[in-house]
Hints:
Blueprint: E1 6-8, E2 27-30, E3 37-38, H1 40-53, H2 61-65, H3 71-80, H4 89-102, E4 109-110, H5 114-124, E5 128-131, H6 136-145, E6 155-156, H7 169-178, E7 185-189, H8 192-200, E8 204-208, E9 226-228, H9 235-238
Parallel strand pairs: 1-9, 2-5, 2-7, 5-6, 7-8, 8-9
Antiparallel strand pairs: 3-4
Amino acid sequence: MFEPPVRVSTSSPDSTASTLLHGDIRAVLFDLDGTLADTAPDLVAAVNKVRTDRGLPPGPYETLRLQASHGARGLIGSAFGVTPDDAAFPALRDAFLANYEAALCVHSHLFDGIPALLAALTERGMPWGIVTNKAARLTNPLVKLLGLDNGAACVVSGDTTPHSKPHPAPLLYAAECIGIAPANIVYVGDDLRDVQAGKAASMATVAAAYGYCGDSLAPAQWHADAVVEHAGAIAPLVMSPA
């Protein structure tokens, strides 16, 4: 029988960790887009420039934002109604990526609560890292621009291993990099594939409902161990009271 996940609202960020996630949690891994950082403004701007360069009006921000965790495939699909199998897709993808790479971190920023969370993890001596499906050529400069490069114990991109999420390989590689067993790691993400990857890697999982969550299933249906609606609610899940 499916046991519903613990749901933590923005009004209860100080709940007791022992009642939420069980086990010896020693590290936390995060997805990047929609979990650590709100990158949708720059992603949507990049795909809308592809539209306006072709004489089309910009697409609605809120609609496109939902696809921000799905990269070029999701954004191009939403903005132009094409799939990677369509002949028009490669040119649209290349134009989008060129636009995005040229304006990678204009309006992107860390979500409220993330700086304090990362500082608390560091102070507690708990390593944290990033595991994203974003290509390394975009991930590495973005992580630096967001000021995350010095604190992250590892940064694993979509092309770091032969597989990307929902395959567990990137998460298992991250665990190896930081020298902590998967069973002692929590993975936080805003997409169903993040939870699937975390579970396949034998990690505890937290669904970031404050992110983009562009899947048809609501985060409460992803079978994550917990669902949070604000980044400030993550710390009590992963750190026992001092």
